[in-house]
Amino acid sequence: MTGIRKIAREAGVSPASVSRVLSNDSSFSVSKQTRARIKEVAAKYNYHPHLNRAVTPPITPRSILVLTTHSLETEAHDPYFIQVHDGIIQEASKQNIQIKAFVRFPDKAFQFTDAQKYDGVIVAGVFTQEFYANLAKNNPHIVLIDDYRYLPAYDIIRNSYFEATQIVLDQLLENGLNKIAFIGGNIHPMNNNGETTDSYQDIRAKAYLMWTRLHNISPLIALNGWTPKDGFDSMNALLKDNFQVALIASDQLTIGAYRALKQHQLKVPQDLQIISYNDSDIAEYLVPSLSSINPASLSMGKIAVQRLVHRLNNPNDIPIHINLPAKATWRESSEINLN
């Protein structure tokens, strides 16, 4: 195909001159003879700029499927999950990626073959390993969020709750506080039909128990579940022991724990200090305001999309596991500012 450079060489002018003459640029100053010579050569080769210009085909946006274990009711009670999902939506929009489906489990109607319709899949929450394996058979481009098991076949985005917990515990010990309780729950992976009977230890509880063993401290721990009522029941069960600080695995659990302390006429932080996790909006407005460890959940959602884009562009790269730093926000519920 004849191009501008060939016409320029034969006409004895620069490619830029050819371009401007053939585009009828009235501001371009050139002699009539030169203008005529350029057009004559172009006509000789039947060159028309608008026919020879490369046409960029429209780019079809990539599409992703988001699977989550978080019901709307769960999100309403725990903003942590809302932040994760908001991060996914914001970054997908920025990257011109369409979230074609957002499936909340349990969902008996879901078929693993559905995943074949999408470029990639983001999973927020914890499913069974069998679920992941079946999903990967139908779409290998998968990024997991918030799963702390060792799963070398998948990209995983999570926060550093384990490290943050041990740092806070070390700081408490340095300040003379060694009677520390922990309230939380276990993790129950989900399948299509709902939670399974299998469970494993939450990363925060694991960090606490490893730390108490390391320091030869007897653990005071209650793992009843994740609702405010579970927090209420757990605090009531632990109050028979004399402890100085309670680490509570979510702000929602702390709501119930606060109520139990009020019923026992115990004051925070004068009688018992409280440090929680998730640093949701409610932490700032509880009375007293709640010290809480922030997991950077919005960034978890954004980075999951970024990692999925990388996976789509580089399908043979080794999966990576990214731990985002968690940071404590200190408020009135802990007497000592551990910063």
TrEMBL record:
<dbReference type="GO" id="GO:0000976">
    <property type="term" value="F:transcription cis-regulatory region binding"/>
</dbReference>
<dbReference type="Pfam" id="PF13377">
    <property type="entry name" value="Peripla_BP_3"/>
</dbReference>
<keyword id="KW-0805">Transcription regulation</keyword>
<dbReference type="InterPro" id="IPR000843">
    <property type="entry name" value="HTH_LacI"/>
</dbReference>
<keyword id="KW-0804">Transcription</keyword>
<protein>
    <submittedName>
        <fullName>LacI family DNA-binding transcriptional regulator</fullName>
    </submittedName>
</protein>
<feature type="domain" description="HTH lacI-type">
    <location>
        <begin position="2"/>
        <end position="56"/>
    </location>
</feature>
<dbReference type="GO" id="GO:0003700">
    <property type="term" value="F:DNA-binding transcription factor activity"/>
</dbReference>
<dbReference type="InterPro" id="IPR010982">
    <property type="entry name" value="Lambda_DNA-bd_dom_sf"/>
</dbReference>
<dbReference type="InterPro" id="IPR028082">
    <property type="entry name" value="Peripla_BP_I"/>
</dbReference>
<dbReference type="Pfam" id="PF00356">
    <property type="entry name" value="LacI"/>
</dbReference>
<keyword id="KW-0238">DNA-binding</keyword>
<dbReference type="InterPro" id="IPR046335">
    <property type="entry name" value="LacI/GalR-like_sensor"/>
</dbReference>
